[in-house]
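Observation: inputs received (chain + BIS(adenosine)-5'-pentaphosphate).
Thought: call the complex predictor directly.
Action: predict_structure
Action Input:
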Amino acid sequence: MHRIAFLGPPGAGKGTQATVLAAELAIPHLSTGDLLRAEAAARTPLGLEADGYMRSGRLVPDAVVLRVLEERIGRPDARNGFLLDGFPRTVAQATTLESVAPLDRVVFFDLPRDVLVDRLSSRRVCPTCRTVYNLLSHPPRVAGRCDRDGAELVQRPDDRPEAIATRLAVYAETTAPIVDFYRARGRLRTIDATGTPDEVGRQVRAATR
Ligand code: AP5
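Observation:
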């Protein structure tokens, strides 16, 4: 049983590493950002409520996120564990998770603000298959096109400068305190997330062993 969460600021590389580790451990990769974006794309009432918060870089209210997350971790494929990416993000979310499905390991991605801003502003995503690229560190083979399906790559609305600034401020104020929540419970492992994806991946594996 693995119940793991990746914690860290926007653009830290959580999603990039979660895709790899979840496949290696054969557990589902649960990104609350991806779940909320899927709800918004499907124009469900919940997705429409979340969309405005996400576009501007603010957190979606706890009650909405908890509804999405609890439904997802209740599915059969999460019975033997899961890898959370982007959850919890508030002390209230962390406290609720403790009573529903306590985590056994939390990996904190540590890196400086200037690296985050560079990674976020140069991220591009495929709107069809959701593959994540980076104009600097992981460009597509053909400029502007997805390697897998040829779709035209797009920039996430919250990767524009004003939303990036809001996300980093919200992170510092509301999410960073969770680091102490898990450190106090002896479950936190901190990694240096400034290296290449392979270097970071080695640290992630060591931290979740
Ligand atoms: P979410 O989708 O979770 O965004 P985030 O936490 O801001 O994280 P990102 O996806 O921006 O970054 P990442 O760390 O996954 O980095 P990535 O691997 O892509 O949340 C979006 C919004 O949804 C929130 O703002 C909020 O509104 C809402 N939301 C979600 N969860 C919520 C919750 N629990 N409560 C309330 N609201 C919630 O990497 C970034 C870039 O860098 C990529 O281009 C990648 O290719 C590149 N890269 C990755 N690793 C490296 C490396 N080692 N070296 C060089 N480049 C790298």
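Thought: report the result.
Final Answer: Residues 161-175 form the longest helix (15 residues). The pocket of BIS(adenosine)-5'-pentaphosphate is lined by residues 10-16, 31-33, 36, 53-54, 57-60, 65, 86-87, 89, 93, 119, 123, 132, 134, 137-138, 158, 167, 196-197, 200 (CB under 6 Å).
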